[in-house]
């Protein structure tokens, strides 16, 4: 390798989508043998940047240099040929094929007449697997491997070329601690071979453990690079969100009314068991736990999307059985779902039609939908929620995440629900909109709504909730009031370390 | 064009390609043969497009709802044969409602399978294409069906009559287009079809009965098919068992030409009517230029494949993309 101050360098990369400047002049360099963390909140532009590097998006402006040469990357194959390889968060493996076939897919070694050279294939694969120190061999069917081992297959795939830069996107998201150790060893090994590594993660402790430098993106802009050894968590956070991390708890308490929703001993198969809680009018109850703890499933059961196997749901003291969202809506339950794009919105539809969708049957003049009634609802909630859109005709898919989420919230608020369930209200939303949505949730409670907030972000739960239900593996571990909750006790409860069930 | 970038042309074609192609076609044909733009020719084109057009209106509902209906051709043969047969046994007054009832029952069956049982619409309607064809042959015993007294029946009014010089098929097509256009664009039901086709899961989360909406799109399609069968039977007063064969693809092509997406959630009745006319004029133009019948098929289907490509390109935002 010749003169190489950087294996990979980006200069002033710009990428815009309708209505969004996803990358705004991002510059970044990766040195050989370093682990370089790329951090930023959801929507900060990390994945867009990676897609530009991987040749999936064309940058509008800017230049990419690999090993000092300016290059134009137009496809993932080309990126790989230049030694830039990706380990994606979402695994893209073919379950039915063997490890070896997955690794060499698209470039299987061939003998005469296009026959696959199985001997060479397996030998080459086993050679790579040996360097990774894994317990499976080239012939194993990928579908039979654990997630962690599948990730090793992804990594092995990256090693079929002589990589210059390897990009890990949230590699530890689904790994156990023991598996992480193995992964970090692999990374250290790559590092010692002079490979540059971009490490994308939200987990601070990992970042501080394995990286050399940290670059931060915010709202599509490059915010700076820090030497890991010389900085701390707080400085990084500040760079990421533009202010200090707000771990303040909700301190505004207002009059609470009657119990709006009570759940008694609710179970749904193996998803969650024996869940009980109450929500009063004017109260925000936060559900906190790890992904897969069963929180979303509880919301879906209350909303009639799943049938409970046991237990009762009481609305205003009356037991109800809800078998479909139609029935749930009729009983005054609204759900702002977790997956905004998949479940919350019809992206190709305009803002107004999305917002009025659940009540379109009631907004009629004669047989037709009344334009006036719809527009007045839209205008009302656009103003109330401060939704920024050129007009109601705008296609929802063109709005920013925050404004999209406000459309979904507006859609359900305009139903004037008794109980409002909000699942991950600020996922993928920029910081500004985030705090607006938090304030909105508090306001709604003040107006007398009974609100359930499901969130995986601790600051969010602490910030909005009057009480917090901590869940672990389908069970309620503990219910905290906002006065008694501490970060430590909350983390312990959701890790299943402490079960202190309050009656 | 030299100053346009590759992307510019690609983007423009992706958005407006079908209209551009159509205008070029029209101008070319008009230059090649003066008769092409004569009033009576234009009228003729519309009239001969009316039967397929009526079917296309129904299929538009199904496609916007996110499904396909490949059974309309053979269902139309069924309607035609049934109404002709019942004409002589029950008399026209009873034959027409009876035929509509039977055709709607077929539509309801498909709607049940696709809507409530959530079976893949391609497989279901492809299967029904053959099944209904078999049903038609069973009904007719494989014989052509003819009305005994072709001169003395008022039944011919739908296919052959006219009001104030405008042929009945055009009037019926126009009326149906207006009514169904209003249903689709102005009623809550129409809105729900777009929601279900655009994002079925979001529709469910909004309390929209997805299965019922899909069911009704097939019922509407069947109603249109029955109307088309009535027009066909009334025009010819006799028919082969295979009269609607191949229509399913032509109808689908009209809907797609109009710009409805095969992925569901987009399209309008107005656009479908434009698609119907484009299809009709291209066919007519090729005829007038004197292209052989079988060459016409090649050209028309190339146009349709082009249209489907442009449809996908518009979704992707470029004509070619390495990822889906």
Walkthrough of the structure:
The complex is a heterodimer of chains A (503) and B (324). With 503 residues, chain A is of the alpha/beta class. Chain A folds into 3 domains: 8-241, P-loop containing nucleotide triphosphate hydrolases (Rossmann fold, 3-Layer(aba) Sandwich), CATH 3.40.50.300; 246-332 and 418-503, 3-Layer(aba) Sandwich (Rossmann fold), CATH 3.40.50.300; 342-416, no CATH class. Chain A has helices at residues 46-53, 76-81, 99-104, 118-132, 147-158, 177-192, 204-210, 233-241, 295-302, 325-330, 340-344, 351-356, 371-385, 401-413, 431-446, 458-464, 487-494; strands at residues 8-17, 20-30, 35-39, 61-66, 69-71, 84-87, 165-169, 196-200, 213-218, 221-227, 259-268, 272-280, 284-289, 310-315, 318-320, 333-336, 364-365, 368-369, 419-423, 450-455, 467-472, 475-481. Chain A has a 6-stranded mixed β-sheet with strand order 6-7-8-3-9-10, sandwiched between helices. In chain A, helix 13 (371-385) crosses helix 14 (401-413). Chain B is mainly alpha-helical and 324 residues long. Chain B contains 13 helices and 4 strands. Chain B has helices spanning 6-32, 39-64, 72-89, 92-116, 121-140, 157-160, 168-186, 188-198, 200-205, 210-236, 247-257, 269-288, 293-316; strands at residues 145-146, 162-163, 166-167, 238-239. Chain B has a two-stranded antiparallel sheet with strand order 1-4. Chain B has a two-stranded antiparallel sheet with strand order 2-3. In chain B, strand 2 (162-163) and strand 3 form a beta hairpin. The model of chain B is unreliable at 1-6 (pLDDT under 50). Classes of the chains: A alpha/beta (503), B mainly alpha (324). Chains A and B meet through helix 10, helix 11 and strand 18 of A and helix 8 and helix 9 of B.
